[in-house]
Automatic annotation (TrEMBL):
Transmembrane segments: 255-278
Keywords: Glycosyltransferase, Membrane, Transferase, Transmembrane, Transmembrane helix
Name of protein: GT2 family glycosyltransferase
Record-linked SUPFAM superfamilies: Nucleotide-diphospho-sugar transferases
Domain Glycosyltransferase 2-like: residue ranges: 10-128
GO MF term (any one): glycosyltransferase activity
Membership in a protein family: Belongs to the glycosyltransferase 2 family.
Amino acid sequence: MTNSIKLVAVVVTYNRLEHLKTTLASLATEQCNQIVVVDNNSTDGTSSWLKETQDNRLVPLFLEKNLGGAGGFEAGMRYAFETYQPDWMVLLDDDARPYPGAFDRFREVVTAEERWSAIAAAVYYPNGEICPMNRPSLNPFWSLAAFWRSLLQGRAGFHLPDRDFSASNLLPIDAASFVGFFVSKATVLEVGFPDPALFLYGDDVLYSLKVRKHDRSIGFAPPIRFEHDCETMSQIDGVVEPLWKVYFYRRNQILAYRSAAGTWFWLVLLIILPKWYLVGFRYGTMRRTYNRVLLKAIKDALRRNLTPSLKDIQRVCEED
């Protein structure tokens, strides 16, 4: 019964061939029908390696240019959905991979509890610690309890606490990352695909919030475990490197806050902008560039301008 669920994995990769090899080796041992690998126009030999790989479930999708994580997931999901019509898709980065048996746990969960439209896995660093960037969350503006916790604890107030990672049952959430994110066919038919114009960061949060706004349920499943071998932030909290990433990170964060907060958005903005300005002092001699990039991110977010390309932002970073 559980094996009748048609599951397709969608992996987005860019210039991380060694990570991709490890991820695909893990996926090769899991029960899924196809593995769609979206190559974001890598330059490190990824495309050649994919063409030579012998796995009848592996389906490479080669993009003509780097569309970022958002564009890659949109392209991969659309291709997988239109080509294979899967019951479910599971999304993951090239540096993320399932724990052994994770897809078996998913099949057990989705068969036993059919009410969920999407399911988020528990994500850990390779050392076994919970990965903070992939910690599921509740929208504090939709939950009174989460709202009060957020006032007292900040970010920790609306992200699920460590104890929830030991739960045996599924827990309702409002936002999750695209690492071990399972989304159903019915949900895609109603909600559509992630916004490719976001390029990088926040596409997963905005998409999961959109799923919830369609009155569809997302469950956090601690028994389904993934590993994420990631290096996005420096050891100093809030410092994003290289600087061009600051633009997409902050712009898309503002869009996510706007989606989550609704009428409370402007108050939230007054709280977060001073904090982001102060982060600039951690960039040392690059502080002026940081402030310039941050200001453009804020302006474009408020105007809902998603047209600047990676090259556009890199030029902003290079200005005197």
